[in-house]
Amino acid sequence: MTAGTYPSPEPVEDPEALRADEAAYRDLADAVRELLDLTVRTRVDQPERAAVATEVRALSARLSARAQDGPLGLETTSDGRLRDHGNPMVGMRNPVAPPLTVRQTGEGEAAADPFVLGAAYEGPPGHVHGGIIASVLDQVLGTVPAIVGRPGMTAYLNLTYRRPTPLGQVSGRARVAGTDGWKTTVTGELLDADGQVTVEAEGLFVVPRWARQYLGTPTGDAGDFEAPAEAGPDA
Ligand SMILES: CCCCCCCC(=O)SCCNC(=O)CCNC(=O)[C@H](O)C(C)(C)COP(=O)(O)OP(=O)(O)OC[C@H]1O[C@@H](n2cnc3c(N)ncnc32)[C@H](O)[C@@H]1OP(=O)(O)O
After folding, report:
1. Does domain 101-228 have CATH number 3.40.50.150?
2. Can you tell me whether residue 200 is helix, strand or coil?
3. Which residues does the UniProt record annotate as the domain Thioesterase (predicted)?
């Protein structure tokens, strides 16, 4: 699970049933992720590919029998927190997500556990697409302001691609580099399977003005808040 998420205002009536429901969503996303990977890598002949396409469309029709319009937003999870299950980096329901698991690793620090970027994320032959790397680091760095109580949007994200990142296992890490009111500067890195830094990042994350009234006083515990305060810094 991703660090830096928030208690839900909705009580969970039946956490066991919700956990089972979540597991089924996760399993579906895992299965479709496998399909994505094999869609890129398959060498079966053309009639077989056409037959598979027909079957996949039939499966999509079954899922569309009950599907919500538009995006997923935040949902209450069995652990009683709000989660973004549709998120393309960490989302439990999203087969596009590698998926990342970003955890708090210390005071103002987070890390993405080792995960695999395969053929579906290829840019330069054999290597990870630069835009995918930006997405990964946006997520890893973006978790840090949330865990220190300043869940901000990315104002800028500067990347230095030191060397190509081979497809396969990668990991990420990030930490607070500075805070200024509602602004948090975060630095971080992407590492390859050998633990070598391939990409360095610096990002500025800003709590939008419209959101500041909803944030109370951070308690320092992974984004938990006291009751909303009348005013925060610069409110
Ligand atoms: C756990 C979840 C992890 C999620 C990680 C993923 C995060 C994302 O991908 S977010 C999506 C991508 N980002 C966006 O769409 C953000 C779009 N931009 C915006 O909404 C706004 O410009 C926003 C929120 C950054 C700031 O706007 P607003 O709230 O009106 O405040 P604004 O007054 O413009 O700026 C606040 C402060 O930030 C500074 N600032 C804003 N943008 C920048 C910038 N690019 N560079 C430097 N400083 C900046 C301003 O100068 C100002 O500083 P000060 O308070 O000292 O005068």
Report:
1. no
2. strand
3. 126-197
| Cα 232 to Cα 225: distance, rounded to the nearest angstrom | 12
Which DSSP symbol is given to 98? -
Regarding the beta carbon of 211 and ligand 1, being less than 6 Å apart is answered: no
Asked if residue 155 has its Cβ within 6 Å of ligand 1, the reply is yes
* Distance from C-alpha of 12 to C-alpha of 25, rounded to nearest angstrom: 18
pLDDT at 224 over 60: no
Q: What is the ipTM of this complex?
A: 0.95
The verdict on the CB of residue 91 being under 6 Å from ligand 1 is: no
Cα–ligand 1 centroid distance for 171 (angstroms):
26
**C-alpha 207 to ligand 1 mean position (Å):** 7
For residue 204 and ligand 1, the question of a CB distance below 6 A is answered with yes
Please identify which residue in the block is written with the tokens 């800003």.
206
CA–CA distance, 167 with 190 (Å, rounded to integer): 12
Domain residue ranges in the chain: 1-99, 101-228
Tokens 């960490």 appear where?
Answer: 90
Mean pLDDT of 70-76: 92
**DSSP conformational letter for 9:** S
